[in-house]
Amino acid sequence: EIVLTQSPATVSLSPGETATLSCRASQSVRSYLAWYQQKLGQAPRLLIYDVSRRATGIPDRFSGSGSGTDFTLTISSLEPEDFAVYYCQQRSDWWTFGQGTKVEIK
Amino acid sequence: QVQLQQSGPRLVKPSQTLSLTCAISGDTVSSNTAAWNWIRQSPSRGLEWLGRTYYRSKWYNDYALFVKSRVVINPDKSKNQFSLQLNSVTPEDTAVYYCARADMSGAYGDYFDYWGQGIMVTVSS
Q1: pLDDT surpasses 80 at B106
Q2: Residue B108's pLDDT band (cuts 50, 70, 90)
Q3: Gap between the terminal Cα atoms of chain A
Q4: What is the mean pLDDT of the segment spanning A73-77?
């Protein structure tokens, strides 16, 4: 099973700042990595797929990068609605998720 | 617009069977491009993919190894829905259960683009 490790567990930022979230895979997932956003009481929402492709309707302040085992989600100029938990997920070998990074308001 | 509506009991006794249903609108369970998944989320185990059902001239199922001996996912064409049965549950199976679609030939490939609302299922006597 491919294990995804996200860091940090929590990041405290102010609106307008940039969030940089990391996801490391226990083995290469090639380019089969996605990011989801989850707000309290809601299902996860697909943000980014195949490392850097934005899903329909996702603002361009969300961007993804990386390859192989190391990936990054960058949220530029945080908006109030961006404070949530973010999960990475791989589909290279079945499906597994990271444990999440909470972006909270400082 | 695809919508997934989940239903089922919120409380299940240990050793019994957890049964949930996911009703589909805006797509069909027998789609030749979609796969219909169950995923659960708990504080201790995080998000876990449980399994899927899909139709490609015939029905297929895939299950996560850690639940393979206890899980069954069935499609129901007549009601355009699919179900999850998890047998011999223990308190470790307490979680929010989600159904989700992956459109394998769509824009997002094998990622989960539509999700149900989630149901919190507690395993307790």
Answers
A1: no
A2: confident
A3: 35
A4: 97
Q: How far apart are CA B113 and CA B34, in angstroms?
A: 10
Q: How far apart are CA B119 and CA B97, in angstroms?
A: 5
Cβ neighbours of A95 in B, within 8 Å: 49, 110
pLDDT at B109: 82
B 84-113 → A contacts, CB under 8 A: 98, 100, 107-113
Q: What is the pLDDT of residues A86-103, one digit of tens each?
A: 999 999 999 999 999 999
Say if residue A44 is preceded by a cis peptide, omega within 30 of 0: no
How many CA atoms are closer than 13 Å to the CA of A106, on its beta-carbon side?
11
pLDDT at position B121 over 80: yes
Count how many Cα atoms sit within 13 Å of the Cα of residue B19 in the half-sphere of its side chain: 3
- How many other CB atoms are found less than 10 A from the CB of residue A10? 10
How far is residue B101 from each of residues A61, A93, B3, measured CA to CA in Å? 26, 18, 10
Residue ranges of chain A whose CB lies within 8 Å of a chain B CB: 1, 32, 34, 36, 42-46, 49-50, 55-56, 87, 89, 91, 94-100
Residue of A45, A95, A101, A102 best to disrupt the B interface, most CBs of B under 10 A: A95
